[in-house]
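ok so i was messing around last nite and threw this chain in just to see what happens. nothing serious, just curious
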Amino acid sequence: MMGIIEDVLLNARTAVDTVGKKAGQVIDISKLKLAVADIKSDISRKYQILGRVVYEESVTGKDYSKNKEELIERIKELKEQLESVTEMIANSSQKVKCEVCGSYNSKNAIFCNKCGEKINSAEEEHMDTDDMIDFTEDNFEDDDLF
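result:
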């Protein structure tokens, strides 16, 4: 009788650990999504500032090249951060990136949801011809077709 209770407790602990890990992943993904929103907001602010600098430069005739270069460099850095965090979210959510348009799709997607191109999954790339099924007529009996 004691063995059954210990098994039940062990299974319960395992289940609690699994649920806890899943909850932790959800929280981590939520934090990453908040980071994406913050980075996008920061990029938008930098674009606004860049626009003002360009406007002031054209109106006043002053040279703000150094300011523009600094803003452009900061925008590039933020976009790299954004891409990195987006990839982390995709990896955590088991998504794959379309090599053509860069959008993220479910791991099981065959075609990109945005551009329609075929998604090359890692499994497909490593599949050799021995693993593929030959669907030619020679491999089927008449009974298989009906």
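not much to say yet. The chain has a mean pLDDT of 78.
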